[in-house]
């Protein structure tokens, strides 16, 4: 297998454009409502599959209608969902996202079964069999913060598996806990707020350098409209964002991860891989939802 995505799985319900929540029983007619597979593992998995990768996704979802919908959507996009475990006592995680005209995305969120994910959900040998393991949302999958799981990551890396990691929340207490994973990660891909919170710094460059010292080969910090910052042993470099008409920023970080991982699978060096990530994020920003406008790798690379 090529890529294993492991972590947060969410069903997103998105509507745009939304300028305000109407009072009482008021109704607002919007242009578009969409349902997508999202979250730092599921959203990245779908994007990876659309970019031509073989993907197995591992996580915890509810034994409910939302879980059925999530499985159907991911399967339709070509993701192997045999790694998903169903929980009878917890619902599938879900978010309602009213997207503002400028692309901003406040949310109403239920963490659900994501909080129940533990090392026992990971089949023996699965991580070691992968070219890349992407950890999506280690700040909220508390059950993976486990010495047994770290041993699995270390064993996989010793056999040549590359480990990448992204986060889900911007909550400092949760983000700080995810720092325990950094010694077992090759590439860490947080956003600016997450990087500074984890490093305890108000400067993104200092934050990236500090996180780099925790073990990764490189730290790639996404900066929204300002592109991304890449810190490695060779120094710190910035890549600009691509100029596109932004509809919705949901899933741009997941798409960046997917583009970056895809480039690694194609043998690209760090900065070129970051450029592929930039192009994937710019593609998604042009539509509604975490996989918007993604069709195939050629379509993404055309932006470059």
TrEMBL record:
<keyword id="KW-0418">Kinase</keyword>
<dbReference type="InterPro" id="IPR002139">
    <property type="entry name" value="Ribo/fructo_kinase"/>
</dbReference>
<protein>
    <submittedName>
        <fullName>Carbohydrate kinase family protein</fullName>
    </submittedName>
</protein>
<dbReference type="GO" id="GO:0005829">
    <property type="term" value="C:cytosol"/>
</dbReference>
<keyword id="KW-0808">Transferase</keyword>
<dbReference type="InterPro" id="IPR011611">
    <property type="entry name" value="PfkB_dom"/>
</dbReference>
<dbReference type="GO" id="GO:0006796">
    <property type="term" value="P:phosphate-containing compound metabolic process"/>
</dbReference>
<feature type="domain" description="Carbohydrate kinase PfkB">
    <location>
        <begin position="14"/>
        <end position="294"/>
    </location>
</feature>
<dbReference type="GO" id="GO:0016301">
    <property type="term" value="F:kinase activity"/>
</dbReference>
<dbReference type="Pfam" id="PF00294">
    <property type="entry name" value="PfkB"/>
</dbReference>
<dbReference type="InterPro" id="IPR029056">
    <property type="entry name" value="Ribokinase-like"/>
</dbReference>
